[in-house]
Design a protein that fits this description.
By secondary structure, this protein is α+β, with helices and mostly antiparallel strands. It has two domains: 97 residues, 2-Layer Sandwich (Alpha-Beta Plaits); 66 residues, no CATH class. The chain is built from six helices and four strands. Strands 2-3-1-4 form a four-stranded antiparallel β-sheet. The model has no long low-confidence stretch (mean pLDDT 90).
């Protein structure tokens, strides 16, 4: 009975424990966040992100991000929509219900154009929306970064770099020093409860 109570106490302790998940650095200008992104990129980090209140021209280059795959997804979906329209109209007009009206041929390019255009646009839009959700791993209703009170200013006038503890290059002292050298105004470790 005593060992059972001891195990129960250990479970309670482990449920309340917190583990570090992110190192969050705050910057007060676009020039400083741009410089910090270059330093983090050059240090070889792979699991990190930049959070800004507005887009910063050239930030994807400073972060070392490759070109987005979204354009290829949209192009593939556009081609799928176009081919689907051609196939659908050919099947309906030539195979399923071949009806000659006013001497017009059952397969006529001008009659196909509006439907092909509409399906190309429709499939492209679906590809853009759902491709963006997939690439950005959305929807994500919660992220540990929201535990930081200071992060609320990311939509107002502050700039942040977050580096995940899971990053292979992460070492708290070295990473903190790197961000301090990049002129961070505030650095904090974000923790979340162990589940």
């Amino acid at each position: 009975m005593a060992s059972h109570d001891h195990d129960h106490d250990n479970e309670k302790k482990s449920a309340g424990e917190k583990k570090p998940v992110l190192l969050l650095a705050e910057f007060d200008s676009t020039a400083k966040i741009f410089h910090a992104a270059e330093k983090v990129r050059d240090a070889g980090f792979t699991r990190w992100d930049v959070h800004t209140p507005f887009p910063i021209h050239g930030m994807d280059g400073a972060m070392g991000l490759p070109d987005s795959r979204l354009g290829w997804i949209v192009a593939a979906m556009a081609l799928t929509g176009f081919c689907s329209a051609l196939g659908m109209i050919y099947y309906m007009n030539v195979v399923d219900y071949p009806l000659i009206i006013g001497g017009k041929p059952p397969w006529s390019i001008p009659s196909v154009a509006p439907v092909a255009f509409e399906l190309t646009i429709l499939f492209s839009a679906f590809g853009a929306v759902f491709g963006m959700f997939g690439i950005n791993r959305l929807p994500r209703h919660h992220h540990p970064i929201f535990f930081s009170q200071r992060f609320e200013r990311a939509t107002d006038d502050r700039f942040f770099v977050s580096i995940e503890v899971d990053d292979p290059k992460y070492d708290e002292k070295k990473t903190r020093k790197l961000l301090e050298d990049a002129h961070a105004t505030h650095i904090e470790v974000i923790e979340e409860e162990v589940v």
